[in-house]
Design brief:
Oligomer: single chain
CATH topology of the largest domain: Rossmann fold
Radius of gyration: 20 Å
CATH architecture of the largest domain: 3-Layer(aba) Sandwich
Distance between the termini: 49 Å
Strand content: 15-25%
Number of domains: 2
Shape: globular
């Protein structure tokens, strides 16, 4: 916290820069690209860990039966540059771990990596005539593109309205950026979220007329996935947890709530595993089960495949309002 206080002047400069940048885009001083294809932008004001990728998966599951969906992301921390289509045999390090995971989960979905989203959208629209909707993952600050629907995520225990701009806080841009969102989802809520808590949060967000607010919670699956799927009860013996994600607290809280005992090996978000990491993981696990996230599983098993490695999958629950969210999006694009 001391370092952040020291960097407060930098945060002020960043705040002013972001305000000017936003003003120039809002008032059309900078050119904005409007894609020919229907688009949904999923993003946040804060730095990572809000649950964007699980929402992408949810939308694919619920909307792909109605319209042909594709996903576009820059492929954070990939070793390549430029426009790349993610294929079944793509290298995870070439396309980005989240894009790779989405392709593995939905083999019939087109997934693309590109840091230049406007170029990618133009190329996709010319090459793929059958795509009806593109989901742009983590594109809220990519102001060069005007999307049809902007979905902003903010965490229950770290809401944007209590945060400050980086590096004093964790916001990528000033709080006023929330006004661009059509839908605001408060993610990673407690399972016993009350109506009073919801009302307090809605009051603090103070949504505009064009905005809808939803609340979501994480649901962890009972079946662990691996070479052979097993029930979560196998974790009653000691195991090793390996995570390379922005926010592992919800997962560790869940495992501790079930009284499981484990050794947690943490890596940074989007960590690129190497043989030294694998050796450390194997040494720490002995003959124990290695539990990880779905994103980490594909990266780890590309270097060391074992019937002792499993991942715990998650789904998001909207407290009974998932159909309302899907209906809102379906109505926007006029498909049922």
């Amino acid at each position: 916290m001391l370092l952040r206080k020291i960097l407060f002047p930098v945060a002020v400069l960043n705040y002013l820069f972001q305000l000017v940048r936003s003003f120039l885009y809002t008032n059309n001083f900078f050119k904005v690209y409007k894609p020919k294809i229907n688009t949904i932008c999923i993003g946040n004001l804060s730095l990572g860990g809000t649950g964007k990728t699980p929402l992408v998966k949810f939308l694919i599951e619920r909307l792909s039966k109605k319209i042909n969906i594709s996903v576009l992301s820059r492929g954070y921390k990939r070793k390549t540059k430029g426009f790349i289509e993610v294929l079944d045999d793509s290298d995870v390090n070439d396309v980005g771990d989240e894009n790779f995971m989405i392709k593995k989960s939905f083999k019939n979905i087109n997934v693309f990596s590109s840091e230049n989203r406007s170029y990618a959208l133009d190329r996709i629209s010319k090459k793929f005539n059958d795509i009806g909707l593109i989901i742009l993952d983590d594109a809220m600050q990519h102001r060069k593109i005007k999307c049809d629907v902007n979905i902003m995520l903010t965490k229950f225990d770290q809401p944007f309205y209590n945060d400050f701009i980086f590096p004093f806080g964790n916001l990528r841009e000033p709080r006023i950026g929330y006004e661009r969102a059509n839908v605001i989802i408060v993610t990673k809520c407690p399972k016993n979220l009350t109506s009073t808590q919801k009302e307090k949060i809605i009051k603090k967000i103070n949504p505009l007329d064009h905005q809808r607010i939803f609340f979501s919670k994480v649901h962890y699956e009972d079946i662990l996935k691996g070479k052979n799927d097993v029930h979560i009860s196998v974790l009653e013996s000691d195991f090793v947890l390996v995570t390379g994600i922005a926010d592992s607290q919800p997962l560790t809280r869940y495992l501790k709530s079930k009284k499981y005992k484990f050794n947690h090996i943490r890596y940074n978000d989007h960590h690129i595993y190497n043989q030294n990491d694998i050796e450390e993981i194997i040494k720490s696990s002995g003959n124990k089960i290695i539990l990880t996230t779905k994103k980490d599983y594909f990266k780890i098993t590309s270097l060391h495949d074992s019937n002792k490695i499993f991942y715990i999958d998650i789904k998001i629950d909207f407290f009974g309002k998932s159909n309302d969210l899907v209906g809102l999006i379906s109505e926007k694009f006029s498909f049922n």
